[in-house]
Amino acid sequence: MASLKSSPAWKALEAHREKTAGLHMRDLFAGDKDRLKAMSVGLGGLFLDYSKNRVSAETCALLIDLAREADVEGWRGRMATGENINTTEGRPALHMALRDPGGGNGEIIAARKAMERICNDIRDGKMTGATGKPFQAVVHIGAGGSHLGPAMVVRALKAYRDGPDIRFVCNVDGAQIAQVLDGLVPETTLFIAASKSFTTEETLTNARTAYAWLSEGLGETGGGGAGEAVGAHFIAVTANAGAAGDFGIGENSIIALAEGVGGRFSVCSGVGLAAALAVGWENFAAMLSGAHDMDRHFMESSLDANMPVILGAIGIWNIDFLGAEALAILPYDEGLGLLPAYLRQLEMESNGKSTGRDGTVLDAGGAPIVFGQPGTGGQHAFYQAIHQGRRLIASDFIVPLRTHHPIGGGDHHQRLLANAFAQSQALMTGRDSAGQPPHRAFEGNRPSNTILMDRVDPFTLGQLIALYEHKVFVQAVIWGINPFDQWGVELGKELAAAILPEVLGRAASGDHDCSTRGLIARARKAKEE
Ligand code: F6P
């Protein structure tokens, strides 16, 4: 791809930025009482207000020109028709097919049916442990995209939960699985080993620990893989059925994951089984419908009325033209507590790249640093830097209008809403320094989006997930990035495999730099002691 900065649409935006450098959002609002109407878009239970950004109608039009110039329309079509748009891995990106009731290839449809059957059989007590008792607890073992999606959804849909106790293990730190297993009974515990590759060391190490725990509890002694009794307590979600089979997981307990579904885009696949078990198939299917609703909107709406395109394009304005280095994800909902972590992986693993899809070094673009925490806790932690820090941080407020927890008939939720709206207003207006000591002055003019949700329910959550998936895709297309690979995590994996025998004391220290050698030596000494 030729230099992004030399493209006509990019240059037009740069000139526009120079021309509008002195603009303050206060004046934009003062000059247009209908600004919200012009700068908002709704879809079902979601409403995006992007009026509190440093943009005019002209900025928005130029950003849409940029999206058009990058051929977002063509790329979304190529994604939908299953072209191999993930070129470095020679794969399509099939996450939309996962929730398309009329679409998807045979493999995806069969996997969805297998997942539904397994979900219903477990919840109905038809699929039991080795001793015939129904499962009361489910431990999902996975990493990255094979962990964050279901963990986020299970927490978000707490109000809909009527299934077994669901717990998650993602860290190879034994402290986590020890804590998760505490209080569980092997006879009534099911493990989901979710790993697209079925080679991720952290996941396999935890699965082996689960295997040993089950073996001991069920009194089964076995060889390398899970025996029959232990095997009855495992479901695998994977694209590598062979390795799952070698582990001892039976054919009927393996849910296939299509090669074309990337980990961080996989929550609507079998990877979401833990969520389906928690809330039941009907609710999980409603989440798929919500995601499909957003898919259709993304595919069918014109770019200037297209929620993911607008969110992506505004993000690029903030990052590349205004210099925002970070994006704060600020859900005003306890249940959405894992949304910042989920979106951090989605954005940073997809677009945290400096090489374009054609191999050239990018001269602009790339994912911002994504972080966040639910309001109001975050307000008392890091909002200070968003309001008055020297670095520009853009924010997405995600605010459900209704709560599932009207506790004690009190007004918690209205207070929560008041805080959310006050924060975005303060970021926009700031406070005039006239008559104030300097430390009390707020410049304001800090960009934010507000996404209102009618309430957090399976449908709106599905819409929200797909909204951000497509936003990330739109940004990738404009930046010229392949968002579906993640080569940057490979080197660490390779080096860890080489270093492990040295830390274990089974191999002499390799040819490392003096820092790494010194660290390994100290770890070995600690192990020996
Ligand atoms: O962190 C790298 C990564 O490859 C992610 O993209 C992926 O979601 C995660 O590891 C887990 O991979 P797998 O599902 O193959 O275990």
Distance between the termini: 55 Å
User: Helicity, in percent?
Assistant: 40-55%
What is the quaternary state of this protein?
single chain
Main beta sheet strand tally, sense and closure? 6 strands, mixed
Name the overall outline: globular
Provide the residue-averaged pLDDT: 95
Poorly predicted regions are none
Question: What is the tally of beta strands?
Answer: 11
Biggest sheet, spatial arrangement of strands: 1-2-11-10-8-9
The structure class reads: alpha/beta
Strand content: 5-15%
Radius of gyration: 25 Å
Hetero groups bound?
Answer: 6-O-phosphono-beta-D-fructofuranose
Number of helices: 20
Describe this structure in words.
With 529 residues, the chain is an alpha/beta fold. Helix content is 45%, strand content 11%. It has 20 helices and eleven strands. Strands 1-2-11-10-8-9 form a six-stranded mixed beta sheet, sandwiched between helices. It starts with 7 loop residues before the first helix and ends with a helix. The model has no long low-confidence stretch (mean pLDDT 95).
